[in-house]
Amino acid sequence: MKAVVLAAGYATRLYPLTETIAKPLLPVGGRPMLDHLLDRIREVGEIDAVHVVTNAKFAAAFAAWAAGRPDVAVHDDGTTSEDDRLGAIGDVAFVIDAAGLDGEELLVVAGDNLFDFSLAEYVAWWRTKGEASAVALHDVGDRELATRYGIVVLGAGERVESFEEKPAEPSSTLAATATYLYHRAHVPLVWRYLAEGNSPDQPGRFIAWLAEREPVYGYRFAGDWRDIGDARQLLEADNRLRELSGLPPRDAYALD
Hints:
Elements: E1 2-6, E2 27-28, E3 31-32, H1 33-41, E4 49-54, H2 59-66, E5 72-76, H3 88-99, E6 106-110, E7 113-115, H4 119-127, E8 133-139, H5 143-146, E9 150-154, E10 160-165, E11 174-182, H6 189-195, H7 204-211, E12 216-220, E13 225-227, H8 231-244
């Protein structure tokens, strides 16, 4: 199994901070965000390589971060701004091609996705589902809050029945997190999805499309989950991880 970490966005909602530092490399709890994610990925003994896809603007910074980590490869998608970016699904396709991952089982996760559930348990659960892909789900517990996320409805056996991005009237409060497992039989379908003219952005859109054609299951997890999109969420994540590390909380986010 290979891991694909999506880190090619420009995080414009965090400007000016992310004009010079890629969001996944921002420190939270005293360590780069990506370090926390890599800890989780390495819990899965089956994963023998981690492929981080980024852009030309930040490729050198990610390469410096990856130095000394022989299981991590950094891929530059060649984009330089919001205007020419490939989009999350476009970047998945780019890495599949660049790293020769067609036919591999993939864990695909966003580089700004912080959580405390076990990826090893997630993979073990997925193994019971046969030829299927999966999405990790967190119950946000509030239908108004659910309007901000991709919302999933599960049917028999935890199979995904519907997946809707930011619905005005959510059918559930199960939010899709950007943590996916692609069965090797489904990996080539990324190309079909794109060839049909579907949006290359927002990784959940591929899973929504796939669930209408192939088995996709939803894995519910409890515990903490942070989808870091703005300054408030960044500060909350930093203070949460500082608390776990025995560091004092801060009133404002800082790089040191």
